[in-house]
Amino acid sequence: MKNPIGRPFAELPLTGYLRLRDIIKPHGPIPVSRSTWYQGIRDGRFPRPVMLGPRLPAWRVADIRHMIENGVGPND
Fold this sequence. Notes:
This protein is of the alpha+beta class. It has helices spanning about 35-45, 60-70, and strands spanning about 15-20, 50-55, 55-60.
């Protein structure tokens, strides 16, 4: 699955964590803005981050891959 805006889905690592800049446009496979991404988290459409530090949110690669493969969530 190739995203014309950002990195292809196949280039995501298999495990680990991703920062927001690696998930959303222009570098990530999800073509949404930062505000849309955080609204989607509040709505339950996008996965919640894991806090790696007091101000360091990251997302599990498995959660992002699952979201891309199976659609965004209950309110798509």
